[in-house]
TrEMBL record:
This is dTDP-4-dehydrorhamnose 3,5-epimerase. GO terms for biological process: dTDP-rhamnose biosynthetic process; polysaccharide biosynthetic process. The keyword Ligase does not apply. One of its GO terms (molecular function) is dTDP-4-dehydrorhamnose 3,5-epimerase activity. Transmembrane segments: none annotated. It comes from the Bacteria. Keywords: Isomerase, Plasmid. The lineage of its organism: Bacteria, Pseudomonadati, Pseudomonadota, Alphaproteobacteria, Sphingomonadales. It comes from Sphingomonas hengshuiensis. The active site is at H62, Y132. NCBIfam families: rmlC (TIGR01221). It is an enzyme of class 5 (isomerase). Its EC number is 5.1.3.13. One of its GO terms (cellular component) is cytosol. Coiled coil: none annotated.
Length: 188
């Protein structure tokens, strides 16, 4: 059954799924409504999607601005990524803090991000598949980002493959956050 590990960003948790193996391969459950409710995690998901990335690709750092902001959960279904989250919530004790977590099909680890955090990753192997659930539908006008290399994080790549959009995001130092930290809601 799913377990969570708190991180140094309030409301951001590592999700540890149980990877069940047998001679055919593996079975990993990434969402279970009663368990998520028991863990105090959101269950009001509105969209899910997945992407595949070649080795050395960076996607991020993305978020959706209010009123389309969302909580997000991600799992790496194939390959391996270094998943990165940065806290953009004014007043958070971890404001501006960036953390990285190795996610892979083998380790069954996912990440749960509350609203007000930006998300990205670098693919560490070819064809790394990332699966997402988010609590709001895609809103192109609110689908924003921060330059991947402007956060306080030591990426293992120096010249990654980026989309033109990701190459053009503002730097964190030039960004005025629309998010405020809510100590009551930190668990979500
Ligand atoms: C997110 C999204 C994208 N799109 C379209 C827009 C583009 O034509 C195409 C690829 O979009 P984008 O380059 O933004 O995809 P990623 O760079 O993988 O972005 C994702 O990866 C980062 C790391 C995240 O954390 C975000 O959840 C998500 O934005 O799909 C849609 O039609 N619906 C959607 O919900």
């Amino acid at each position: 059954m799913m377990d969570t590990e708190p991180t140094d960003i309030p409301g951001c948790y590592v999700l540890q799924a149980k990877v069940l193996g047998d001679p055919r391969g593996t079975f990993t459950k990434t969402f279970h409504m009663p368990r998520f409710e028991e863990l105090g995690l959101r269950t009001d998901w509105r969209e899910e999607y997945f992407s595949t990335s070649a080795k050395g690709v960076v996607r991020g750092m993305h978020f959706q601005s209010p009123p389309a902001d969302h909580a997000k959960m991600v799992f790496c279904l194939t390959g391996e990524v270094l998943d990165v989250v940065v806290d953009l919530r004014r007043g958070s004790p971890a404001f501006g803090k960036a953390l990285g977590f190795t996610l892979s099909a083998e380790n069954g680890r996912g990440l749960y991000l509350p609203t007000g955090c930006a998300h990205g990753f670098v693919s560490m192997r070819d064809a790394s598949g990332m699966y997402y659930k988010v609590t709001s539908v895609h809103a192109p006008d609110h689908d924003l980002g921060i330059a991947w290399d402007s956060i306080d994080f030591d990426w293992p790549v120096r010249a990654p493959a980026l989309s033109a959009r990701d190459a053009a995001h503002p730097r964190l130092s030039d960004f005025t956050t629309p998010f405020a930290f809510d100590p009551e809601g930190a668990a979500l």
